[in-house]
Amino acid sequence: MDAGPERLDAWLEHFGIDSIKRHDALSDAFATAQLLQIAMAHAASRGFDTPASLRELEKARRHMRQSA
Question: Whose CA is closest to 38, among 10, 19, 59, 17?
Fold first, then answer.
């Protein structure tokens, strides 16, 4: 699934996260924080247990996509 502001609704739906009021800064920030918690738990189960390690993983994935 591609990331981006227009895709937040799709991510929320995919993970079953209810957003109180979409396109409201506080509500969107809270929903995004919930997504980060899910991502961190998923990554930690694979040995990526810090935000820095997630950033490195994403950097490597971007590099792989550009090289393909």
Answer: 17
Angle among Cα 46, 51, 4 to the nearest 5 degrees reads 95
What is the spatial distance between Cα 66 and Cα 62, in angstroms, rounded to a whole number? 6
pLDDT digits (tens, 9 = 90+) for 26-50: 998 999 999 989 988 999 999 999 8
Residue with tokens 């809270």: 30
3-class DSSP state for residue 23? Answer: coil
28: tokens are 């969107």
Residue 6's pLDDT band (cuts 50, 70, 90): low
